[in-house]
Amino acid sequence: MKLVEQIVRSLSTTQLPLARSNQRIQIYSQNLRHSRKMLGLKTSGPAPPTPCSHFLSPNPTTATSRHFKPYSSFRSIKMSAEQIVEHVVLFKAKPDVDPSKLSAMANNLNSLTSLNQVVHLSAGPLIRDRSSSFSFTHILHSRYKTKSDLADYSAHPDHVSVVKEYVLPVVDDIMAVDWIPTDFSGPSEVPPGSALRVTFLKLKENLGENEKSQVLSAVGGIKEKFPGIEQLTVGENFSPGRGKGFSIASIAVFKGVNELEALESQTELANEQKEKVKDFLDGVVVVDYAVPPTQSASL
Predict the structure, then answer these.
(1) How far apart are alpha carbons 126 and 291 in whole angstroms?
(2) Cα–Cα distance, 170 to 34 (Å, whole number)
(3) Which residues have C-beta within 8 Å of that of residue 25, sequence separation ≥ 6?
(4) From 3.40.30.10, 3.80.10.10, 3.30.70.100, 3.20.20.70, which CATH number describes the 85-291 domain?
(5) Residue 172: CB atoms within 10 Å
(6) Cα-atom radius of gyration of the chain, to the nearest Å?
(7) Which of 106, 114, 182, 204 is 20 to 30 A from 68 via CA?
(8) How many CB atoms lie within 10 A of CB 187?
(9) Hey, how many other C-beta atoms are within 10 angstroms of the C-beta on 277?
(10) What are phi and psi of 131, to 5 degrees?
(11) Cβ contact 267:261 at 8 Å
(12) Going by C-beta distance under 8 Å and a sequence separation of 6 or more, which residues neighbour residue 291?
């Protein structure tokens, strides 16, 4: 009799986990039917036999594929997005300054490319200044991953030293504009030998967000009109204190100077783009610059 009681007791303890497991499966099935109902999926039909069968199924239903995107696709989109902070400084050299001092300024500015915060940096004399109100002679163009990196670069002792010793003694005027491109694509570093067209726009006072959006849209659409542009960045200046009132900025990157010069033959397209925004503008700065083949070369 004792042996029978031991067998019954043994069977009871063995079945208890199975009962709990079946209870969990029933609860899972109820939750799954409720979730499918909330998603608008068909709820009729038998529940899956085990909790993992849905995810292991080699032939998911069309409805399931519509609601759940593969992780790999999300990851590729996430990894392709990149933020770049543009920093452009324009310099007007003193009229009688020794050319060797201007070369020293450019060389020392280019040496700042070694700072950890810098993604890209290039400095040197302009090809031309197309502005009527200013007479800039030199440019520094650099890129950073964040605003914080730009701030750290600006405060870095090496940067402060170069500005004090090699820049301020030889220039009459400085203008700086910073922006985050609204839609950045392409390489973060501008290849040596490239040519840049840098444009700053000053908007008329009391313009609304709608007019500002029209200007940004018109400038951003330039790349489609001019296939010679390798890369175009457009954005709003977030450092107004140094920008002389210019609030919209863009950089068009060309493969080289020849490609930039070819833009001059497309005056009709250029005028078409200007007509879209001219009523909103109170000033324009346009400068052209050729990135040196090697940054270490004397400028």
Answers:
(1) 10
(2) 74
(3) 50, 51
(4) 3.30.70.100
(5) 12
(6) 31
(7) 182
(8) 13
(9) 19
(10) -85, 145
(11) no
(12) 122, 124, 190, 191, 192, 193, 194, 195, 196
What pLDDT is stored for residue 70 in this prediction?
34
CB atoms within 10 A of CB 253: 21
User: 10 Å Cβ neighbour count for 183?
Assistant: 9
What's 193's DSSP letter?
Answer: T
Q: Which residues of 227-248 are buried (b: 16+ CB within 10 A; e: fewer)?
A: ebbbbbbbbbbeeeeebbebbb
Q: What is the pLDDT of residues 244-287, one digit of tens each?
A: 999 999 999 999 999 999 887 776 666 676 777 888 999 999 99
- Give the separation between CA 60 and CA 49, rounded to whole angstroms: 15
Sheet holding 229-236, edge to edge: 128-129, 281-290, 195-203, 248-254, 229-236
Question: Which of helix, strand or coil describes residue 261?
Answer: helix
Is residue 223 very low, low, confident or very high in pLDDT (cuts 50, 70, 90)? confident
Q: What tokens were used for 258?
A: 């020849």
92, pLDDT greater than 60 = yes
Nearest of 198, 209, 195 to residue 87 by alpha carbon: 198
| Token duo for residue 22 | 């079946």
Tell me the pLDDT tens digit for each residue of 39-85. 444 444 444 443 333 322 333 333 333 333 332 332 223 333 478 99
